[in-house]
Known about the structure:
11 helices, 33% helix, Rossmann fold, alpha/beta
Amino acid sequence: MKTETELKEMVKQKYGEIAAQDKTVNQSSCCGAGGCSTEVYTIMSDEYTDLKGYNPDADLGLGCGLPTAFAKINKGDTVIDLGSGAGNDCFIARAQVGEKGRVIGIDFTEKMIEKARENVDKLGYNNVEFRFGDIEQIPVTSNIADVVVSNCVLNLVPNKFNVMKEIYRVLKPGGHFSISDIVLQGQIPAQLKEAAEMYAGCVAGAIQKEVYLETITATGFKNIQLQKEKAIIIPDDILQNFLNEEQMAIYKKSNTAIYSITVYAEKPAEEKSSCCVPGSGCC
């Protein structure tokens, strides 16, 4: 089993390689109509093209949902995107916050940050920025964000609880998040769980759905809602890279399921004091 540091370096290297490619190259090996699916990175992605603010240069097809479509973003909001990649969700969020809002993308892959900054320079946006940083130590001050979004990234982080604590910290009281991620029901085969490609492809690092939701509750979030859920089927031509025929047959007969979920939760608003201190002016 790799250490947390080794897992992060593996993800950084793989997504650095992906950043150097365009979406066409990424999707050429993805699961398409009658096509070959030799890579797992893009088999989960949803269609963004109808969303306002969409920029094809920023879409590498690496997500597993549409968190910005569910995030209840308002004009003037400050939005943070964790694992912002080439900037896809940031530019969708920018269309929602308007000129008076602010969007901050965080990513720990240098090449992704470079690509995102190239994209924002082309678009000429002065209220979208990209910061290099680990989402277990988000490089922003506390209580700054109205909304946090993330698309298929938390499953790549070994310590999910640390990320949830950081999301709680950076959100304003009363703020909320909408996150798309991969979760499991049942156990995937050891051969998949130990495969570096399956980890970087968002499957091997996924945790049980109930544990994922319990982690959100344990961090202190309230009003947790499952906004969307869809089953993810790993194509045979990907599975056969890791499992023999017998193992594949056993896996398919098992009760194991892989899901993409989009989950919403709120940081509680600060409670007003019910007591009145003499001389405080609150009465």
